[in-house]
Amino acid sequence: xxxxxxxxxxxxxxHAAGMLAMAPLLKTVIKKMKARLQNRYGPPLLQxxxxxxxxxRKEPVRSETAxxxxxxxxxxxxxxxxxxxxxxxxLFAWAPxxxxxGILLLVGTLALGRFALATAALDTGSPFGGMGAxxxxxxxxxxxxxxxxxxxxxxxxxxxxxxxxxxxxxVEQGPAWHPSDLLAFAGLFVIVIAETGRIPxxxxxxxxxxxxxxxxMVLEYAGPDLALVEWASAVKELLYLxxxxxxxxxxxxxxxxxxxxxxVALLAWTGKVLLLAIAVTVTESTNAKLRLFRVPExxxxxLGLAFLALAIRFL
Amino acid sequence: xxxxxxxxxxxxxxxxxxxxVGQKALFTAIRLYGAQSLLLAIVAATxxxxxxxxxxxxxVVLTVALKVILIPWFxxxxxxxxxxxxxxxxxxxxxxxxxxxxxxxxVGYRVSSGFEGGARGVGHHLIGVxxxxxxxxxxxxxxxxxxxTQVLALLTVENSVFLVAVGVTTGMPLVVELGISFDVIVxxxxxxxxxxxxxxxxxxxxxxxxxxxxx
Lengths: 315, 215
Fold this sequence. Notes:
Chain A is mainly alpha-helical and 315 residues long. Chain A is 70% helix and 0% strand. Chain A starts with a helix and ends with a helix.
């Protein structure tokens, strides 16, 4: 069956819009939970949206030495994050553009965004941008293979690289209960923390540390440019969490379009993402930030776990 | 359902072992050992319920009381008391250790399929994980400098033996179990005192210094 192109495009736009709308909320929820753990009240739940609205209204201030690369960076980063959302099933066991490609396209799209942002950070020639870009790339070089291996481990179980088909298979056969799943999950969880710049790896809350990674890269951006970067980062975070919950806890995902199933799927997805967000918050609150040279060790653990997840399937 | 919980817990034990290999904070390593023991207790409890072997509940209580609470507490107290540098300094760096451990896990899993009844199903994973834990524990024992981390490695080995005894065999007699638990607690106590002695004498917990003459 060839799906109707208009239907596919419409679904993709709705899908991406939904993820874009939810992403700032997730970021604020994690901030809020973290604040509560530290006996603070934290920001109101809509703070993420206020911040974006404020940044989008401002005029972009750009360095005189900045070229088009600097301007293109946040836009490509944002576009890549939005494009990546259309490849991952969220509420339905189906992704709008799943026929375009599977795991490799997803990882590649995210890598494209990261590349664009890193080159843009190098463009103005400021020391912080270059330092941030170099650090971000160092981490990405280790995190990316682990991400791919972890995803391959679950792809191997279903016999397909296509995320839509993969999730449909998981929903049909139910959870498989193989040690490989837990190992891959543990590995990918570390990767999610590294990729979203959370505490054992990077600190999202400060601009005052010499150890900053992501924040150093985007230090020079202001106004709408910064809004795009922040928004895309939030979307990426939501996307990673969704990927984890849908691959390893395929409960409640809608297989049909009727209202009841969709409602259940919405509740299940919200609950599962919230659960994982709590796990991220607790990890962030109970761990100290690692020294930069220790980060590769942490990532090598996750690479090891992901590799083992893959290897155990054959043993 | 039972098989699922068993496999999940066994895999969890393997994950804690890998985290133990991969990180360097001494307190986290002790907590990881506690978590590993808790998973072992869950394995025992699951088997006790599914195969209606009430005597296993004694094992569960013993495991939780000793290995989840008492031993970690005692080890942390020892570390606190001797006030050592709270970081593990292995002979081999982390990525290399992980690679070796990956190889050991593969070996453990391969060997486990040679056992009778170990070729498929839950038994395969339980024996595979237990053998991997055994090998990783031995590996940790030879590559760690600090006496406390060697104690932890020994305890990991003990956990792995326990996992096989509980999960695959028909269980040990109560007397044997009591004896083993007593052995473990005495071993930890003695080793704890030994560690304090080493520190008193050499002002370090680094066992590689023990071979040097003191004049």
